[in-house]
Design brief:
2 domains
């Protein structure tokens, strides 16, 4: 059977490597559950070859002046923008996200980050510091590339995450071996081709394909200098532990159970819009989702009334339709996981189901594309009267499941919001910016918002606290994660200071 997309293989030495595999699997369109491409798992020997390709390219690429690297990466960003809709359709086929989302967010924000880091290094972002220690001595620092680095992507924002990792990596003078998620692998070889077309030398950006065993072999490899991973906490702990054993640099962007706090003076309209963005955008498959929505007791009835009125504006359906803004979950295993959480919320947690539930969405029966009935569609679901001890409140669901938690005082809500071992994101909705700053300052999270939710521009360094991660991505601090610093003290006094002089 002919599939919509060409087979995907490993990519190294500047080209696709059809001999890099002895087995394959298929990637599935979540909207229809139909296969869209054959993906060939990279063998261990081919992973070795990809890393060796990076090692061969590293000396010349790291020695290339930053301004020249910047020009190449700027061309790549321009190519991504020129191919935006094509790449967005690939992302829609792979993730199930509506084209209205992938065409305006996924490729665009990835290209923004690539352009940001190209401009940053081109404008002196890799310059060190100079300190006059005393009249005849000074200290200078330099920023040096690490070597060949590993990037492990996630399935929810495939090309965006690939660019969040590869952009600062390559801009700093490193080479990368990148493994996409086995659930959303289509973008990786296309990105490699874009880099090559822009002038990135062979071996600087390489791709391998496969599941967790492929990723484990890559991250444990002795010739990998750094591992950058995005994914769930339990996997990240294993990856970080393995990398630490080899004294590798790491960046870990892991999960969250973030608090979306509506303060008593907040505008209900804005609060509802924010809570919906924090729970239902991208079908809830966003690590920074604010799935614990804290509402003042007195405001809860009005908030829930307006929320139910606005839920009708969630429009599932044909993912290519310009009116669709809600897609399926990414895979059958993930669909089963989310449905189990919803059932647990009803039967075991005994939360009040305000909207949605585990049943098949009713619109599927009348949809003209009967293949959609096999897709991984779920209803946007809202539980209310939730308590902090419920499983649906404590654990990351990674689906469109909102938990409304009433509270009495601001001091109480801050304490409850922080009562989790995760600390990725948090947000506050209020008309009083003084209150906003005071509450934000007390929240134990690395990414915070006031009167908005979810935006992570290239200029904004983002990273989790607690078990939600190590290090940051994007912004000026994001570049620092891809270099090692060298300090040099220069003595110009004409004599070597010594305690071993003749008395």
């Amino acid at each position: 059977m002919s599939l919509p997309y060409a087979p995907r293989f490993a990519f190294y030495d500047g080209k696709s490597q059809s001999g890099s595999s002895t087995s394959s699997f298929q990637t599935i369109d979540p909207a229809t559950a139909k296969p869209v491409a054959d993906i060939h798992t990279t063998t261990h020997s081919a992973i070795d070859a990809a890393i060796a390709s990076g090692q061969k390219a590293f000396p010349a690429w790291s020695a290339t002046p930053p301004i020249e690297r910047a020009r190449i990466l700027q061309r790549a960003a321009a190519l991504l923008r020129a191919r935006n809709d094509e790449l967005a359709r690939i992302e829609t086929s792979d993730t199930g996200k509506p084209f209205t989302e992938t065409s305006t967010v996924d490729v665009v924000t990835g290209a923004d980050v690539l352009e940001y880091f190209a401009n940053l290094v081109g404008g002196g972002g890799l310059n060190g510091e100079t300190t006059q220690l005393r009249p005849d001595a000074w200290v200078y620092t330099t920023k040096n590339a690490l070597g060949v680095c590993a990037g492990i992507g996630a399935w929810n924002y495939p090309i965006q995450i690939a660019l969040w990792k590869s952009a600062p990596c390559l801009a700093a003078g490193n080479c990368m071996v990148y493994k996409p998620s086995e659930f959303t692998p289509l973008h990786a070889s296309v990105l490699a081709e874009v880099y090559a077309q822009a002038g990135v030398p062979p071996g600087v950006f390489n791709v391998i394909q496969g599941g967790g065993d492929v990723g484990a072999y890559l991250t444990k490899h002795p010739n990998i200098a750094k591992v950058s991973f995005t994914g769930q906490v339990t996997t990240g702990q294993k990856v970080a532990g393995s990398a630490a054993g080899g004294m590798k640099y790491v960046t870990m962007e892991l999960g969250g159970k973030s608090a979306c706090i509506v303060l008593p003076d907040a505008d209900i309209e804005q609060a509802v819009d924010g809570a919906m963005m924090a729970n239902f955008f991208s079908t809830g498959q966003v690590c920074t989702n604010g799935t614990r929505v804290f509402i003042p007791e007195a405001m809860k009835p009005a908030f829930e009334k307006r929320l139910l009125e606005k839920i009708q504006y969630i429009r599932p359906g044909d993912v290519s339709d310009p009116n669709t803004n809600f897609g399926p979950l990414v895979s059958k295993p993930h669909y089963d996981k989310v449905i189990q959480y919803i059932k647990h919320g009803i039967t075991t947690d005994k939360a009040k189901l305000l909207h949605g539930g585990p049943e098949t969405p009713s619109w599927l029966a009348s949809h003209p594309n009967k293949a959609y009935q096999n897709g991984y569609w779920v209803q946007p679901t809202v539980f209310t009267n939730c308590t902090d001890t419920m499983k649906i409140v404590q654990e990351e669901i990674f689906g469109p499941v909102m938990a409304i938690l009433p509270y009495k005082t601001v001091d109480e809500v801050v304490q409850r919001a922080n009562n989790t071992n995760l600390g990725l994101a948090a947000g506050v909705f209020t008309n009083d910016l003084n209150s906003a700053h005071k509450v934000i300052a007390q929240l134990e999270a690395g990414i915070t918002w006031v009167n908005t939710w979810g935006e992570s521009p290239a200029e904004m360094s983002v990273g989790g606290w607690k078990q939600s991660g190590v290090g940051v991505e994007n912004g000026r601090k994001g570049l620092e994660a891809w270099v090692r610093n060298k300090s040099t003290l220069v003595e110009m006094g004409g004599a070597v200071p010594t305690v071993f002089a003749k008395l």
